[in-house]
Amino acid sequence: MRFRDRVVLVTGGGSGIGRATARAFAREGAVVVVAGRGPESLAETVKLIEADGGVATQVTADVTDEGAAARMVAEVVERHGRLDVAFNNAGVVSAGKVGDLDRETWDRVLAVNLTGVWLSMKYEIAQMREQGGGVIVNTSSNLGAHRRQPGLGAYVASKAAVSALTRTAALEYIGEGIRINAISPGPSDTPRSMRPGETEADRAERLKTTNPSGRVATLDEIAAAVLYLASPDAAYAVGTDLVVDGGASA
User: Fold this and answer.
1) What ranges do the domains of the chain cover?
2) In 3-state terms, what secondary structure has residue 179?
3) 3-state secondary structure of 29
4) Which CATH architecture has domain 7-244?
5) pLDDT single digits (tens) 15-34
């Protein structure tokens, strides 16, 4: 119960890594607030946490909108009095070679994956400074600072920037008791790790030869890494970009 009575905010909490991590925080005693653009999927996450015996609420927010990001953090504090941990996980993937990308796709990927993380951190940091500290974990990717993949130019650029932004913010705020790190997952058990037209069986067969570990990560494996970075066990981890990708970028 490393997070007993801690207030935890999870963006992108309506599915995938966000949902699995929100449930993991709740199982270890946290009061969890899940945020995202889809109220129905957020409500499903809350229902799953409550079925597990945990405590959770939801906030509908588009993290690319500064006013919405500010209200998201304000609502967490209004309901629960503080914000101890933030997991900035909202993100999108769009395919396209650099020379073939249209401006709308580029802007959307950068807005969600990079600007959304920055805006979330901006207001999370302000609250954590006021209350005397806290912990932030950002979702980056093994694609970006660690390895590249043709056809994902906007995504790779956005995630490399998240890694750099995380490390810079970590240096800026550790002196005020705010510890900031990133998690960089590789292929995980979500639809995003499947190529167009690929089934789960196709993906499993492909990864047998393309990933050193021969498989995707389970969502619980990624969640465990996030909880480690957010916990007192990682008290000396500052500006870490923890790659969890089965050896793909080793």
Assistant:
1) 7-244
2) strand
3) coil
4) 3-Layer(aba) Sandwich (3.40)
5) 999 999 999 999 999 999 99
